[in-house]
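Lab meeting minutes (informal)
Scribe: AK
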Amino acid sequence: MKFRLPLLFILFVSLSLVSCDGYQRLLKSNDYELKYKKAVEYYEKNDFGRALPLFEELVTIFRGTTKGEDVYYYFAYCNYEVGDNLLASYHFKNLQKTYPTGKYAEEAGFMSAYCFFIDSPRYSLDQSNSISAINEFQMFVTLYPQSKYMPECNAYLDKLREKLEQKAYENAKLYFNIGEYKASVFAFNNMLKDFPDNKYREEVNYLIIKASYLLANNSIDEKKMERYGATSEYYIKFADNFPNSKYLKSAESMYESAVKYMEKKNK
């Protein structure tokens, strides 16, 4: 008994082959107006995979014409829709630069930043794209301070900064946990400089005291005086800024120990 394919399946395959053959002829065609018309049709049907090669060719063909800006706009979005975010960001940026007073300039500037935001990984990974996104959003805010995208920009900037803040905290905490106290003090101080209002501020200031104290404890005699002095300075600053801190008692104990050592050496 022979296996018989369902009629609807045969018709679907036949139509697909005809459609595919027609698309290949379109790609080879020199009728650029037809290509533009069909590319827009594909785009509006969310068939970005077919629209993309057509617009890619038409970007060059229609450059300098009245259709040039529209073609580049569609092309940039096709790259975005197929998931090539970094390439899309490049083309959105180039669209903005090429047509700085055009109808898509503001939107393109926002999308250039947003594409980097999409590719920003979790905090534990390399944050190059997060930094690029922040730079792009800040540039956008400067250029378009009254933009309708401003609320989104601010929300995305907050998320990106929080991610960098988390990474800085975890890196400094890692130095502390493995006993690299000098590197830990340096990293925590840099974190406070880069993120002065971070949510870990109280804990970070306390850990600076503790790291500097442990660094002094484990130092050679020639360096203990200077390092205990740093501990006492960090404590005084901490006590002034966080008088009701849950860490205050522990910090005070280290401060008193540091002062006691310095007084003994000064006798």
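Next up, CB showed the second protein from the same session:
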Amino acid sequence: MEAGTLLLRLDDRVQRANVALAESQVSDTSAVDLAELQVEFEEGELQITRDSARQGGANAQDVREAEFAYNRSVVQLRAAELELEQRRLSMEREAARLAEMMIRAPIGGDVIEVHKKAGETVDELTTVVTLVDTSMLEIDFPVPPSVSAGLSVGDAVSVHWQDIEAPPAEDARIVFIPPTGDATVREVTIRIEIPNPDGLPSGLHGRVRLRSPGGGAG
């Protein structure tokens, strides 16, 4: 299966309804639309009142009331916009909660074991599925510090399998060289990756042969 494939899902009927409700509330922009119309109307009324005052028709009180009505409509528009933004954030929160009720494959691979059945209780520490990806095999092997000092990430190595009849893997690469070693045995553990187009099982043993300058058999 591919990464992102849905593996398991909790009973999410209530949460899906919460998400649908939140989406409906976000799509309703009528309060903002109405507030915008009110601002436009009050702005026009204020301009008419000011023009009338300049011509001697309206008095100062009329202008003050028109200014107050306009300013109030602006505040009401900001409040409507804020409420809509809060609804949007609430929708994102509900959608995130819904996503947490699903387990999707973090990698491409194969499910080798399902630990829980439908109806069983789980929590954040419960193992529910074992998923493995064997498209790239890894081997960790120790070498003396004198050998690791001559190696670099990306160096080519070969692997001769010991558990099965299979041709040696000649396209393996060093992917990690730790900056520290094990002082008790005076060794550094190197990690290599091996492309696995033939689908060999994990857990195999093999003999690693270093091919970089200064390397030897591992």
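CB comment: The CA atoms of residues 46 and 67 lie 6 Å apart.
No objections, moving on.
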